[in-house]
Predict the structure.
Amino acid sequence: MDANLENALQEGKLRRQINDLIVAHLRGDNLNQAASVVATATMTPLTTEVSPNRLLELVAKGIATERDEGLKGPFSTAPLDASTSLSSVPVMASGIDFSAMQDVKGSSKNFPKHETKHISEHKNIARCARFSPDGQYVATGSSDYSIKLFEVSKIKQIMGFDARDGPIRPVIRTFYDHAEPINDLDFHPQGTILISGAKDNTIKFFDFSKTVARKAFRVIQDTHNVRSVSFHPSGEFLLAAINQVRYSLSGSLYVTASKDGSVLLWDGATAQCVRQIVGAHGLTEATCASFTKDQRYVLSCGKDSTIKLWEVGTGRLVKQYLGAVHTQLRCQAVFNETEEFILSIDELNNEVVIWDALTAEKVARWHSNHVGVPRWIEHSPTEPAFVTCGIDRSVRYWKEIS
């Protein structure tokens, strides 16, 4: 066979495979209209049997390979500069199938023991926290209008502190540019940019590659209190919302938690609401909502003292996690890095509560070690560690005991 003809046939086969993957991916994200348009334009069967997660899996492998091939030379400890980027995080497409297991008593996994340490203190209530996508940094926002940026490697050093090592300062930047308490934070997925939303009706952009900068280099003025911010995974767009907003890992969807107790799912490209879960938390506020890594499920938390897991495709309630009181504060419920466990706060007993994500059984209750209830809990996306922020102004870091 002529080499040119063979190449053309191989290219055509590859294009058909790519089209199959795109259609399956769009259908898996419930973007059926977009899937139909692509299928018609490319003459691809709409009922292709390709796994909806296959495209994400292949992209994740490609990103990982590209990243590994690009890592050359020894590890550098040079200071950050404006061209430095946070390392990209591969998409973890294969999530837990929560519908595959019933709640069988006694089948829950044990949550590993953790040690905790007070790592810093604001001058007023520590209100929120966010890890960078690569887990190398964590930022906290406060009612004292300040933002603190921590380097996680330095936090680990002080947790195993030896006086002979000399002083270790995990706070590497402190920003003062808001006129009201900070509500939420997010890191740019590639660059050294941190954004914040605050009660002063602004979103502010901070470049933490600059060692002396204390002020924002860009400000977006809103008309209302900015309670939540979220970067699109591409870094080209951002969202702001009244209670909480979070993009899915692919950016094809985003979810909002509302004051009226509902959880809404939105198309990430058209900004159209594609599913409403009305009364997800009754008539009380839905305080947080976020996707699983495979974006098949949404985890939400509300002031009705419930944490719930919803199926994105149907809006069906899949799991409910009970046993932690949260009726006053804007409490968070978060997955650990493997999505095997869910963590939240019990306001009544000042405890961190952990559930097995599959069985919905409580597997641990730990005193928070805060004087007063933590306002926020945030888990690292890359390792078994999390932070809690308290009304006692303190920030505590928790890590698995090895």
Observations:
- Residues 3-28 form the longest helix (26 residues).
